[in-house]
Amino acid sequence: MGKAAFFDIRDGSGKIQAFFRRDSLGDENYELLRDIDLGDFIGVKGTLFKTRSGEITVEVVDFTILAKSLMPLPEKFHGLVDVEKRYRQRYLDLIANEDIKDLFVKRSKIISTIRNFMNGRGFIEVETPVLQPMYGGALARPFITHHHALDQDLYPRIALELYLKRLIIGGFDKVFEIGRVFRNEGISTKHNPEFTMLESYEAYADYHDVMQMTEELVSIAAKEVLGTTEIPFAGEIIKLDPPWKRLPLKQALIDKCGIDFMDFPDADSLRAKMEQIGMQVDPLKDRGRLIDELLSTYVEPDLKQPTFLIDYPIEMSPLAKRHRSDPVLVERFEAFIGTMEIANSFSELNDPREQRERFTQQRQMHAAEVERAIAAGELPETEMIDDDFITAMEHGMPPTGGLGIGIDRLIMLLTDKQSIREVILFPQLKTK
Fold it and tell me: Which end of the chain has fewer CB atoms < 10 Å from its terminal CB, N or C?
């Protein structure tokens, strides 16, 4: 405006107006303002006053250019809308779209609330190895790396489970960890190769205790961060207040596709039944994975309100304890909200002899898959026989309730985002 100029300056705490006058700065300094662009970092010194409209403003007596922006910023009015560019250049996304920054502030608050919840229940937060000599605790294909000094292959962990259980064996009654895990599998709106997990283990608890803890944890996180337990997600209003519905997996499948898996004790008979109702089935899948396919096809799409699916076939859960009422089932639940699985839990198997037998059976069931993976130069997607873990169990492990929660999916739920990439600051993308 001739002899005066107004700038808006912004940092992490907010925005304020700065007022520059030629009379205060002198001609030479005032002319420097012409070289300042959107995106530059400047420091200003001056006194505060209010404009006629009541806006708090700094009347600048001196200023410093702290850093020069050599690249143009996204046009502020329209924001940054190119989805791939938003993910590849997240810093521009944060600059241009203030709601994205707010989302990640919420993510931080949700994780802090979870941590406080666990600490308040007497859990000890611990850290376990990221690089492990044996991958286990989940059915997933790992990444692999090589340690040159040890001349040994190591695996970025696919789960936190087996080391946390070692701590239960060692005398910690309640432990948890929030950390990254790595799975060498597909990328989708619900999967990223690295993601954040909460895993907890509590001695002298079972999956009923963990169910109660899970519904309390999620509802409290929503209440403290969002101010409500009734949240929008994918066009639905989700009600998170406990108690959540408990639904046996067997009954859910009977209701949705008419198949009682108890009537089909082996993979061949179950596969034939699935083909009879029009499904195309991988001939190498074992009975547990066939049941999981039925679950994902017929049951998951309708699990919008919070639901615990409980009591799974033993083939699906090699680390879970047999059901106290039916030895062909295990005491396990998966928690679903908004058609997504957000949590998995067992009454943990604590018999080392049965654990070794289960690992061996898993390898035998997946023998064809293991051979196919090895022939292709890949690592098999199956539980390994971890002798060191079984040795630890042989020293005695108390009855234990375990829990795993996918933090990223929980953030998706609580922020009404349909893609996991929206809630991870730097999602994995194919290199250009």
Answer: C
Residues 195 and 68 in one domain: no
Q: How many domains does the chain have?
A: 2
Whether 254 maps to a domain, the answer reads no
The reported pTM is 0.91
Residue 270 lies in a domain: no
Instruction: Please say whether the beta carbons of 153 and 144 come within 8 A.
Output: yes
Task: Kindly state whether residues 123 and 14 are assigned to the same domain.
Answer: no
CATH number of residue 54's parent domain = 2.40.50.140
Residue 317 near residue 358 (C-beta atoms within 8 A): no
Q: Please name every residue paired with 17 in a beta bridge, in sequence order, or none if there are none.
A: 8, 57
Range of the domain at 51: 4-72
Contact yes or no for 160/126 (Cβ under 8 A): no
Domain end, chosen from 37, 72, 107, is at 72
Percent of the chain with pLDDT strictly greater than 70: 95
**Is-contact 223 116, C-beta < 8 A?**
no
Does any domain span residue 235?
yes
